[in-house]
Fold this sequence. Notes:
The complex is a heterodimer.
Chain A: H1 21-28, E1 32-37, E2 43-44, E3 59-64, E4 67-76, E5 89-96, E6 103-106, E7 121-130, E8 133-140
Chain B: E1 7-14, E2 18-19, H1 27-42, E3 51-55, H2 61-68, E4 75-79, H3 87-99, E5 105-112, H4 124-128, H5 142-157, H6 161-176, H7 189-194, E6 197-200, E7 202-203, E8 211-221, H8 222-225, E9 233-241, H9 249-252, H10 257-260, H11 266-276, E10 285-287, H12 293-302, H13 311-316, H14 334-337, H15 344-355, E11 367-372, E12 379-386
Parallel strand pairs in B: 3-4, 3-5, 10-11
Antiparallel strand pairs in B: 1-8, 1-9, 2-8, 5-8, 6-7, 9-12, 11-12
Helix pairs in contact in B: 1-2, 6-12
Amino acid sequence: MTSRPYLPAELARFEPSPLEAGFFAAAATGGLAIQQCARCRQLQHPPRELCTHCHADELGWAALSGRGRVFTYTIVHHPIGPLRAHVPYNVVSVALDEDPEIRVVSNVVDVAPDDIRVGLRVVVSWEPVRGDLSVPRFRHASEES
Amino acid sequence: MSDGTGTAIVGIGTTAYFRRGEATKSAAGMSCEAILRACADAGVDPTDVDGFSSYSEEVPPSTIAPALGIRELRYSGYVWGGGGGGACAAIGNAAAAIAAGDAEIVVLYHALRRTEATRFGGAGGLTRHTGTWTTPFGLLTPAQQFAMMTRRHMHEHGTTEKQIAAQVLAQRSHAVTNPSAMMRTPLTYDDYFAARMIADPFRLFDCCLENDGAAALVITRLDQARDLGQPPVLVEAVVQGGYGGWGHALHDQAAPSAYYATAGHWPLAKRLYARAGVQPADVHVAQIYDHFSGMVLLQLEDYGFCGVGESGDFVASGATRWPDGSLPVNTTGGNLSEVNLHGTTHIIEGVRQIRGTAANQVAGARRCLVTAGPSPLPSSSMLLRSVA
Lengths: 145, 388
């Protein structure tokens, strides 16, 4: 662990679109919310305009535990732009416990590059980037959690 | 179709290749140079060209047509998607326009002229991509995106870095004996593993070149092709698209887990072989799109040259290495070692192999597979065949 943030906050320059707002509203209160179809209950991520299963456009948000496992990863060594001071850093795709087909791209902030593995147990950890906007990072969790 | 109603590639041409940012001509100037060479190769008067087809291209036909002095533009087509995914689809568009009678002589052209701001692996990624679900986490470049897919394949199937390196070394060995290749220094496993890591598991030589240049091809009806200067190369079958769930999976990484560690080309392969009425064993040589080494292996599985999960063993066996492999792959050196023009040069090499004029000629090659992508949909692929 270092005192500096895992990646520069300026990378998160986006403004959440109306489609994405529910995710970040939940994030502001420390919860992980994933888009869910109000009709057939399917979860999907990233959020889309329609349910990809039943095509309903009534879509809400389901509160999830924020726990999951690393599905795949890369360790970035070749930096671009402002990331020079942050390499090597990992990028992971986390398959969430409630539905492993729901995967969230993020970083594991407390594991050394050589120790990142597919299957690593992780839990979400919110990082404020500006105002009330937070982005999800992950931390190593015990196997039993 | 070899009854005269098919379409054929009758001309090929390229500029010289330049290191990134070192081209002296503009992209339009390089495109015109490549088109003139392709027309000369075909024995076609450039002013008779009546159609243009391209993909991922910034120079429009409205610039090219007056520069060439063409008499009448009858067709123009552009393939959606990104990167090299549309290369074969652009041949498909040309073939469809010709079959429909919309045009008679269609040119496919593509140029790349990169600056620091527009290079593929550069800081431009920070300004171009503002994806909510990827950019804040530093997932910014194609190398990083495809590294994640390759890593998953390694996890699921035990594919090793050294197996992937075998494909990189095979392609470099092809480049060494290809006078037009940019990277002609022999490469050893020690060299490969000593090179700097870009995005694990990809080291430097797993990544395509970034360079400047242009390439072009001339497509016409097979019955007309027989009267021109070169032995016609039949466009036996061409398909575009891909598995719908792939979408833009390399950006959002959201392909269903069962298909994540594929290249998303398997539906294309099925359609392509069915359309031509052939099997993988009927393919003699292949140009497999190689933005990144690992994706060559995943495509070898998608196209049925080996079983799912077996591509590591397949390439490590030497199967893809010219001249002795059972399926020489990327016989110029490909994007990794010859030049990276988004796959236009893969089609050109397919034409050379069927003509019998390649630098690394596969003996008796009568059918060549060319693939384009994986990329955001559509990807594409085709079979080129001899009509001799």
